[in-house]
Amino acid sequence: MAADSAIKRFLAEEIEVFGGPIYHPGTDDLPKTNEGHSVKHVVRTENEQPGRFASDLTQFNQEISGCQNCALGASRTKFVFGVGDPNADLMLIGEAPGRDEDLRGEPFVGRAGQLLDKILAAIDLNRDEVFIANVLKCRPPNNRDPLPAEVEQCEPYLWHQIELIKPKLIVALGRIAAMTLLKVEDTLKNMRLQEYTYQGVDLRVTYHPAALLRNSNFKRPAWEDFQKIRDLYLAKRKGAGIGV
Ligand code: SF4
């Protein structure tokens, strides 16, 4: 029945975005990002071997684009390295390529990518000024969540991208990306309230644009997140004497 399936879809979306507890965002009740929370630091446990990968981002892409270190290498259509400014101050990270990304070889394309472009434009940025990537560089079948073994193989590539790009701020897009990066099991609602660092870089968590397409209730809190992200990004650039 149509009503039943609509309810089931709504509940599934709530779980996907907010985790186990169902929480219906009457938007006025949504918690605001709390600047006063303690900062949680996430660093890799093993040091990357110095000189293991190319010291130039384009060369690094070429170096790993044929990777077959996990089973996703065999099922991908295209390897998805990431796009944007190799010296970007802001890096946006999702969990893994989806169908459109796998076909195009570029992260965040299709409707969700177009919405991300609009969000960036609303904070006076475009995708050429930031760097957009995923934790996994190849698409998991049927867009399932990344497996721990896949993350273990692929995450060192992301570490090296961060080392080369040297962003001042990282934004994790969506609950799965955030949990994968931060090695925590938590709700998006909670993670949005926290301040993290990842590989020594400040990290904040917000919605995946696909979630905003599925549930317009998330647009307002997402906009609040991105306003804070913009302020933090500008403050960091100003602190570094950039664009002042
Ligand atoms: S997902 Fe990462 S580790 Fe697996 S094949 Fe693709 S690039 Fe290699």
List the SSEs and their pairings.
Elements: H1 2-18, E1 39-42, H2 57-64, H3 72-75, E2 83-84, E3 90-94, H4 99-104, H5 110-122, E4 131-134, H6 148-165, E5 169-173, H7 175-182, H8 188-191, E6 195-198, E7 201-206, H9 209-214, H10 219-239
Parallel strand pairs: 1-6, 3-4, 3-5, 5-7
Antiparallel strand pairs: 2-4, 6-7
The protein binds iron/sulfur cluster.
Molecular structure report:
The protein has a single domain (55-238), classed as Uracil-DNA Glycosylase, subunit E (3-Layer(aba) Sandwich), CATH 3.40.470. A hairpin with a 2-residue loop joins β6 (195-198) and β7. 43% of the residues lie in helices and 12% in strands. A seven-stranded mixed β-sheet has the order 1-6-7-5-3-4-2, with helices on both faces. The longest helix is centred in the C-terminal third of the chain and has 21 residues, at 219-239. The chain has 244 residues and is of the alpha/beta class. It is built from ten helices and seven strands. Residues 67-70, 72-73, 136-138, 150, 153-154 line the site of iron/sulfur cluster (SF4).
Provide tags for this entry.
244 residues, alpha/beta, Uracil-DNA Glycosylase, subunit E, seven-stranded mixed β-sheet, 10 helices, 12% strand, binds iron/sulfur cluster
Provide a compact summary of the structure.
With 244 residues, the chain is of the alpha/beta class. Helix content is 43%, strand content 12%.
